[in-house]
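Question:
Now give any protein.
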Amino acid sequence: MRTHLTAAAAGFLLLAGIGAAAADTVVIQPEQETVIKEYVKKKPLASVKLPGVELNIGTALPDTVELHEVPNVKYRYTVIDNQTVIVDPDTRKVIKIIQ
């Protein structure tokens, strides 16, 4: 009986961890993404180099990187290593890399 409870508890903790990880995922609505892409094209920025930082979804950018506003959108953008990235200003994490 104790083995079954331990396995059930482990399974629950595993599922709770998956739920917590999924909660960190930010989804940009298609309308917002269109607004951001159009704004970025109109307001290009100089690219910033970040040696030693691998740029991926979820990468937290250092405070030294300036984030730029997009009117009427929560998210910010910047250009790193010639890639435009959308950033959550609350966490400074990259949520989208615009191709």
The radius of gyration is 18 Å.
